[in-house]
Amino acid sequence: MNKExxxxxxxxxxxxxxxxxxxNVNKVASKxxxxxxxxxxLGLSESERxxxxxxxxxxxxxxxxxxxSCDEDRSQVKNKKIVVKRFFSILEKGLHxxxxxxxxxxxxxxxxxxxxxKKVMSVLKQNRRNPKL
Length: 133
Prior knowledge:
The protein is of the alpha+beta class. It has a domain at 3-95: Double Stranded RNA Binding Domain, CATH 3.30.160.20. Helix content is 47%, strand content 14%. The protein is built from five helices and three strands. It has helices spanning 3-9, 23-27, 46-55, 76-95, 108-128; strands at 11-15, 31-37, 65-70. The longest helix is centred in the last third of the chain and has 21 residues, at 108-128. The mean pLDDT is 89. Residues 16-32 form the Prokaryotic-type class I peptide chain release factors domain.
């Protein structure tokens, strides 16, 4: 993953924010929308692209475009920084490969302890029975 190349591939669009904010909302385009085409990215290897398509399937469009938006701040520059940071964190999570779980063997001592406990309980229950006459 080459961050400089990825940054150059990002497409930004400034849009008017929705919601409360008074007259400032009506005249300032502070919301930032980020578009990233996973399929056409040169900053990712082929294996990274396929991994992202698989792991981020719910966040991608049918054309494999990742769309993120941010309108948390009144400043367009701050929103752009926030959305870029969010983009890279999503990419890192998508490219993270979890370790393969290795099954551990049950130690011999643990098995013997369990069998011994079963025998003790069995003897206890046998002693509770009525004697046969």
